[in-house]
């Protein structure tokens, strides 16, 4: 069986024609958040994936197999809860409030301008409905946020070219608007 130990986030740096011709593999979120799994691509080739622990695989990423071939990852549709503000009783702020309460419970959330998506959970669905949110079950791809400290954390197509290099956030450069965090280099 072929193996894969390299991932190219979003296919960055690869020619579009190469990515377009690559075999594909559809993986749901449960698999894409693991660093070790077996898969079968669109040509029927089975392969094992062995990535660094903690690596998240996103739709649009490209796996490089040991023989040099490329496999483009597609986020497989899966059952998720789509959350929107109640058009009749709510406001745009309600979606922000819902995201806060879900985040406070460390729930993986996909954030969109007009809705949120989470994995099915009847307790959370009831909580959201009590907040006057509209919650429906849909079958769609799920790409939750990776978190503020994740190197591959925000959704694809964000538009910023942050890469994974470290940013210089020294206190002198950011005296105004400085956010204190774990990488802050002064006493609190």
Automatic annotation (TrEMBL):
GO CC annotation, single? cytoplasm
Q: What is its main location?
A: cytoplasm
- What domain of life does the UniProt record list for this protein's source? Bacteria
Q: Where is this region: Disordered?
A: 145-188
UniProt GO molecular function: nickel cation binding; unfolded protein binding
Q: Which UniProt keywords apply?
A: Chaperone, Cytoplasm, Nickel
Work out whether the entry's keyword set contains Nucleotide-binding: no
- Residues of the UreE urease accessory N-terminal domain: 8-71
Q: Which CDD domains match?
A: UreE
GO terms under biological process:
protein folding; protein-containing complex assembly; urea metabolic process
Looking up SMART domains in the UniProt record yields: UreE_N
Q: Does the keyword Cytoplasm apply?
A: yes
Instruction: Return the InterPro entries for the record.
Output: UreE, UreE_C_dom, UreE_N, UreE_N_sf
**Residue spans of biased composition, Basic and acidic residues class:** 157-175
Enumerate the subcellular locations listed in this protein's record, separating them with semicolons. Answer: Cytoplasm
Report the protein's function. Answer: Involved in urease metallocenter assembly. Binds nickel. Probably functions as a nickel donor during metallocenter assembly.
Q: Which family does it belong to?
A: Belongs to the UreE family.
> What HAMAP family does the database record attribute to this sequence?
UreE
NCBIfam families for this protein: PRK13261.1-1, PRK13263.1
Could you identify this protein by its name? Urease accessory protein UreE
Origin species, per record, is Limnohabitans curvus
């Amino acid at each position: 069986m072929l193996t894969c130990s390299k991932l190219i986030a979003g296919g960055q740096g690869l020619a579009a024609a190469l990515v377009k011709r690559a075999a594909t593999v559809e993986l749901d979120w449960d698999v894409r958040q693991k660093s070790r799994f077996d898969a079968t691509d669109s040509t029927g080739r089975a392969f094992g994936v062995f990535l660094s622990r903690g690596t998240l695989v996103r739709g649009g990423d490209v796996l490089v197999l040991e023989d040099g071939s490329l496999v483009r990852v597609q986020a497989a549709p899966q059952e998720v809860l789509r959350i929107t503000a109640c058009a009749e009783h709510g406001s745009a702020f309600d979606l922000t409030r819902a995201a806060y309460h879900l985040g406070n419970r460390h729930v993986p959330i996909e954030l969109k301008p007009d809705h949120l998506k989470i994995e099915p959970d009847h307790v959370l669905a009831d909580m959201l409905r009590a907040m006057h949110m509209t919650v429906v079950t849909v079958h769609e791809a799920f790409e939750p946020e990776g978190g503020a400290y994740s190197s591959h954390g925000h959704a694809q197509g964000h538009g910023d070219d942050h890469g994974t290099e470290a940013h210089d956030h020294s206190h002198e450069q950011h005296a105004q608007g400085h956010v204190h965090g774990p990488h802050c280099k002064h006493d609190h």
